[in-house]
Description:
The protein is mainly β. It has strands spanning 5-10, 14-19, 22-26, 41-46, 51-53, 56-61, 64-68.
Amino acid sequence: MAPTKQTKQIGKNISATLEGTTLTLVIDISKDYGLSSSGKSRIIASSEGNQAAPGDAEIKIGLNIYRRA
Length: 69
């Protein structure tokens, strides 16, 4: 039997998929959500705080992807 596969969007530009015991995050690095609050970087993706992984609320994801402004 194939492992259960669950996917959910997390914050901005992050797709999280849990399949069995493997968590995969997909981020489109061409996205630009503007400047950070400090103005030093441009936001590509953010979980916007700690978010529950798909299918397992005890596992949390906290992630920021950015480039220099």
